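#lab-general

N.A. 3:47 PM
ok so I finally got the sequence cleaned up, no stray characters, all 325 residues accounted for. can someone with queue access submit it? mine expired

B.Y. 3:52 PM
send it over

N.A. 3:53 PM
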Amino acid sequence: MDIHFSFWLIFIIIVCVMLYIDLYVTDHSHHERSLKSSAVWSCIWIGVALLFNASLYLLYDNGHEKAMEFLACYLVEKSLSVDNLFVFIMIFQALNIKRINQPHILKWGILGAIVFRVIFILFGIGLIEHFKVTICVFGLILLYAAFKMLKDALSDEEQTFDLNKSRIIKFIDKTFKIDTAYTGERFFTKIDGKAALTPLFVALIVIETADIVFATDSIPAVLAISHDPFIVITSNIMAVLGLRALYFVLSGMLGMFKYLKHGVALILFFVGFKMMIMYLCDEFMYFCAYKISVGVSLGIIFVTLTLSVILSIIMRKRDQGENIT
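B.Y. 4:20 PM
back already:
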């Protein structure tokens, strides 16, 4: 059996089994998720991704290179996802969604995210193969996204989700009936015998829309590392699938990773710059001397994330010490 087909089959089986456990078995629990349980599940998801990465290294064609590409793509997508989850927290708070109903919304949000990301990845790879200038366009998108993220990170203003300024909320409010008094766990209900949306479905639409917007940053970022559909799709889905558990870990640790956003912005700057070099290398051979290898990319991404987390922990402890004194 062809090794590429075998790995696709293994990946699909792993995803189906883990989806069944995470989205069906655990979703039938009728109590709020604890921080400990969420942390355990986050570790399980990360462990599965690392085991899959190890199997690539040992068994896949050109395994050393492909394993580094997978890990680099996974780290980029995971770090961007963490920043996105903070936005999801603000959306739930703004819409007053009970914590016990949040896993149900995230389940459908993640399934939708998987479908859209596979479509975007295949579309992005197709564009790059047929129009090389797309690499330059993606690079510019990443540089702009990095600048915007770093500007937000350096701002002293507290980020919030304003319902009154949300275009999608305004559209839903004008187009559909919404039962704002509904407190159950369903997406749809009835008002005077007519179908109406619940705040849970509104939250789902807003989160799905936000994720599509986020994908315009994350997909070009991973395409800066690899153009292999198998590597990009598997790393992306592996990073997305564990987000439900990670969400509840982060919601219980708000404010702990103050400088993570700074680190993610610097990574976006790096991958945007890397994409520009890739484009120049294709157009002008002289720039190939400056082409950045996957190993160097992985090292920069890993070190940047590690330092941003360490700095966040150090500064948090210092601030706590100052508050005590």
